[in-house]
Amino acid sequence: MKRKQPKRHHWLGKTVLSLLLLAAGGYWLWWQIGSRPIHARTYRNTNVVTVFIPGYGSNSLTFGPMVSRFQKDHATNQVTTIKISATGKRTVTGAKRYDGKNPLISVVFEDAKAPVKETRQLTALLHWLRTKHQVKRVNLVGHSMGSNLSFRYLTAQHTDAQPQVVKYISFASEFYRDPTSQLAHFPKSVQTLVIGGQIFGAKGDWAVSLAGVKRYEKELKAAGVSTSLYIYRGTPIGAYHSSLHQNPYIDAEILQFLFT
User: Fold this and answer.
1) CATH assignment of the domain containing 116
2) Higher pLDDT, 201 or 141
3) Helix or strand run (H / E) with residue 119
4) Which SUPFAM superfamilies match (predicted)?
């Protein structure tokens, strides 16, 4: 004869299901509210190519979903993914031209834990865009170590043809050494937005400190660079280090800074 399952197991199962449904509903509502400003805007065509540079150990999921969202919201009509192998070979998928409305390029490094090599590969990629595709102006958007790669690129002395950097977004990043000598070479014409996250009750996004993000903005401003700061404060769903690039409020800040 089959024994009846204790009533408390049924109660526990219903409670867990209710909590999951409540969490899913809360996430949906959070996303819908955060997305409203994005859907309501009209984005101008800047004719500037925006290059997204991911962080340490990253892959196509870092910026792939973000650039797809931007395309759906009509901020762009050209999205490209460029995968760079450990040897520097480029594999291009998506748009092969960079002359549409606010073209976006999501970069994916195969060797994503080698910042010195990645900086060289980024420099070579931008040179290739300038000479082979006549890309004269770019924006750089870097997450975590991708921001540091962008900073190294911006403060290096280039001997080959490179596009002009118009805007630079650094988010979820901080300086890991004294930047004074490098900041002297940072182009003063580049407009900069620094983005950080703070989980409620924490000192940052559980990977990068809020104090470090604020110092990033402060040092750039002290060097004479036009810089603004945006801090997203919330739960780990939106404010955690690797959640910031899957956050509609961050999307809205980036789109406003780049294309409105």
Assistant:
1) 3.40.50.1820
2) 141
3) helix 115-132
4) alpha/beta-Hydrolases
